[in-house]
Amino acid sequence: MAGEYPRIPAGWRVAGRRRVGPFTTHMSFGHPDGRAVEWSSRTHRKHASRLSRPGDEGFWWAPHRASWWIGVLFAIGATCFMVGPLPGFVDLVGPKADAAVFFVGSIFFTTAAGLQCLETFNADREPGVGAHERFRVVAFEPRRIDWWSSVVQFAGTLFFNATTFRAMSTALDDPSYDRLVWAPDALGSVCFLVSGYLAYAEVCGRYACWRWRSLEWRIGAVNFLGCIAFGISAIAAYVVPSSGSEVDLAAANGFTALGGLCFLVGAILLLPESAAEGGARG
């Protein structure tokens, strides 16, 4: 069927399917040779994309894989968002330099999210065949849960680009900027929450689950926790510039740093995930 994802290879039999709403996240196939083959959306994207295929490299150094770069770039950006809100760091470098750290972090986030979109757009359409199709710079595939997660996350990073740039370019002698240089904005936070939940549900194959032993689950869960922390920070920061208390300020800064820490952990975990054997398994 045109637009179907994943496409079912000729001769393969569908033995089972799991969905989250309208999205297929996991499938079981009967191979023509009699083998049972398991397919999952995230594993396929991370190991059967034109940009991310397992090789002989380890996971600490694998610059030929887009999935490795995604982890490294997210880790750098997350570090910026983790240290930027810390009072001691602001006192050390000053509010202008601190605002620049947030902006630089947002650029790394956007670069990683854009590369993740390309990885998603260029995943093989069929499992287990290693098909090399034309390179896609853009793609519209609303039937895919990973397409929505990647694209919405990329949109969220663009909102963060705008707000971090505004914080950097605004006169920082304003009292509100002395107290709170930057916190996640509402639109960016909503995008991250939607994207983070879709990535988590993609791994689960249902709306919620607990699979601590699964590396994929830990990545999805810790990143979703980071998205929640950014959302709480955005709410707390809403009242700081006018009548907010020191508690509101501490919550805004603290949850921004917590979100950055969660994203850093998730980014580091991407490195061993990208190096693991994956794709359709049988």
Quote the average pLDDT: 88
Q: How many E strands?
A: 3
DSSP helix fraction: 55-70%
By DSSP (H or I, 4+ residues per run), the number of helices equals 9
Broad shape: elongated
Low-confidence segments, ≥5 residues, pLDDT <50? none
Per DSSP, what share of the residues sits in E-state strands of 2 or more residues? 5-15%
Structural class per helix/strand content?
mainly alpha
Rg over CA atoms: 20 Å
Q: Give the neighbour order of strands across the main sheet.
A: 1-2-3
H-E order: EEEHHHHHHHHH
State the end-to-end CA separation.
Answer: 24 Å
Largest sheet: 3 strands, antiparallel
Number of domains: 1
Structure explained in plain terms:
The protein has 282 residues and is mainly alpha-helical. The chain has one domain. 57% of the residues lie in helices and 7% in strands. It is built from nine helices and three strands; from the N terminus they run βββααααααααα. Strands 1-2-3 form a three-stranded antiparallel beta sheet. The protein is elongated and about 65 Å long. It starts with 12 loop residues before the first strand and ends in a 7-residue tail after the last helix. The mean pLDDT is 88.
